[in-house]
Amino acid sequence: MSEEVAAEILQTHILDLAAEGRRLDGRGPDEYRPVTVEPGFVVTADGSALVRLGETIALAGIKLEIGKPFPDTPNAGVLTTNAELIPLSSPTFEPGPPQPGAIEVSRVVDRAVRAAEMVDLTKLCVTPGEKSWICYVDVHVLGHDGNLIDAALLAAVTALSHSTVPAKRFEVGEADYPLEVQHVPIECTFVRLGESIVVDPTFDEEHAAQGRLTVATDEGGRIVAMQKGLVGAFSPEDVKAVVRRAFVHGDRLRTIVRGGSR
Amino acid sequence: MGSVGAKEVPVLLNADGLRIDGRRLDELRPLRIQAGPLRQADGSAFVEWGQNKVMAAVYGPREVHPRHLQQSTKAVIQCRYNMAAFSVDERKRPGLDRRSQEISKVIGEAFESVVFAEEFPRTSIDVYIEVLQANAGTRCAGLVAASVALADAGIPMVDLLPAVAVGKVAGAIALDLKKEEDNFGEADLPMALVPQSGRLVLLQMEGHMTEPELDQALELGVRGCRAIYEKMKGALRERYSIAPIATEAA
Fold first, then answer.
1. Does A93 lie at the interface with B, CB-CB under 8 angstroms?
2. Which of A4, A44, A53, A169 to mutate to test the interface with B (most CBs of B within 10 A)?
3. Is there a domain that residue B132 lies in?
4. Which of A54, A154, B51, B78 could form a disulfide with A33 if both were Cys (CB 3.0 to 4.6 A apart)?
5. Are strands A131-143 and A78-84 parallel, antiparallel or unpaired?
6. pLDDT class for B7, splitting at 50, 70, 90?
7. ipTM of this predicted complex?
C-alpha cells in the first residue's frame, strides 16, 4: 500500500518537473543518458555487445548456425531476434513464460533489424532451398532502468556489426569472415509527460508516462519502424516532431555503435 | 581440424605436470568478483572466473509468488539458474531446461542451509543466476556470485558459500576444471563449503574415482574453497569499505 502511495507521489513529481522542462535526473527534455558499448563481451558468441544506457544494461549475443531456409524464401537465410527480460534485471519481472512487455521489446527490435535490411538475408544463403545460415540475435536485459527497446536494439546492432560468420567451423567455407552489415537502424524512444515529450525515459518516467513513441531510423534518412505504446496519445504534429528528434539522436548513436566505444 | 564435433583428445597434462592452460594441478583459474554492479537489485555480484562470466542478483525478502509456496515460519529461497542462449558454443534454446532446473534446486538448497530464513517468515528471497559465458564450472561460479549477492543484499547468513569443482584429468586429481578438462576428463566433483563449519552444502559427482582419489579431491576442493572465500570477502570489503576522509591539509 505504502509503495503504491510513494509511486503515485513520484509520478506526480515527475509530471510537475516536466511542466517546467525539468527531469528527475537533471537531464533536459532532449538529452539522452550516457551510452557505452562493449563489443566482444562474450567469447562463446559469434558476435556480442554489452550496452549501458544509464543504469539500463543489455547484452546481445549472435549465434550463426547452418539450417534449412524457409520453403517460401529458398534463396535467403533466416534472422530471428529474441529479447529475454529475465527476472534478474528488475523487481517487476517474474520468472515464467515471456510477459507481453518482453514480447513487445523482442518484436519491436526484430522489426527494426528486419525492416532496415540490416543484414542482406540472400547473402546468408549457402545452397538455395537446402542450406542457409540461421542468425540468432539473443538479447539479455541485465538491468532495467527504462527504455529497454533502445538499449536492446543498440546491443543487437552493435553485436551484429562486430560478428563473424563461422564458415570454417561449419565446414561451408575455407575461413571465417565478418558478417556483412548494410544498414544500421537505431531506435529512439520518447514518452509524453504532460505537454512535454522527453527522450530516453527512465523506469520511473515510463511509469509516469502518458504514452510512449519509438521511431527507428537508418543512416540513409529512412524511417524503418515505429511503435506507439502505453496509455496515451500523440497528435500528428507530435509524431513529426518526434521523428525529427529521432533522426538527430540516431545519427549520434550510430557513431557510437560504429566506433565501438563512447 | 577445428571442425564441428572434433573428438581428438588434447594433451591434458604435460610432462612437467602442467595442465592445458599451464596451471598446476592445485591452481585455480583467475577469479574476479565484483559486488553490487546492478542498481535495481537488492543485492548483486558479477563473477569472471577463467572464461566464465556470471551475473547474480538477489531480491527480497519480499512477497512470495506464487502465493501457495509461502511458509508461515520462514522465508522460502527461490533460486533460478539460467544460461544465456549465446553462453555456450552451440546456441542453447532460451529458457530453463532440466539441467538448469536441477542446478537451481541444489543451489537453492545449499543457500537454505546457511540463510537465517526463520527471521523472515512468509517472504521469499529470490536468487537469480545468469550465465553469460560458460566454460565449465558455471554452477560453482553461480554459487559464488549468488552468495556475494546475498551478502550485498544484507541477508543474514551463517557464512558465505565458496564453491569449486575438483576433477580428474589424465589420471590426476585437479582443481577447478576448464572446459576441455571437463569434456575429456574422467571425473567432475563440484562442491560448496561452509568455511566456518567445514561442512559441504553442495556436492555432486560424475565420473570415476577411487576412494583414495575422492579423499584427495575433497581435501583439494576444501582448500580451493578457502582461497575463493578470501576473494569473496575481498569483493565485499571493496564495495563497503569507506575511504579514509581526506584531511584538510591542502
1. no
2. A44
3. yes
4. A54
5. parallel
6. low
7. 0.86
Which residues on chain B are in Cβ contact (under 8 Å) with A48? 86
Number of domains present in the structure of chain B: 1
Residue B132 is placed in which grid cell? 553469460
Residue B65 in contact with partner chain A when CB distance is under 8 A: yes
Look at residue B148 and tell me if it is in a domain.
Answer: yes
Q: Which grid cell sits at B41? A: 537489485
Q: What is the domain extent for residue B85?
A: 31-238
Residue B247 in any domain: the answer is no
A158 by DSSP, 3-state: which? Answer: helix
What distance in Å separates the CA atoms of residue B222 and residue B129, rounded to the nearest whole number? 23
Q: Is the pLDDT of residue A262 over 50?
A: no
pTM (2 d.p.):
0.90
Q: Which residue has the cell 580451493?
A: B224
CATH code of the domain in which B172 resides: 3.30.230.70
Are residues B150 and B78 in contact, defined by beta-carbon separation less than 8 angstroms? no
| pLDDT, tens digit (0-9, with 9 covering 90-100), for B53-67 | 999 999 999 999 889
* Candidates B3, B39, B78; nearest CB to A171: B3
| Residues 6+ away with beta carbon under 8 Å from A225 | A108, A111, A112, A115, A116, A185, A187, A214, A215, A216
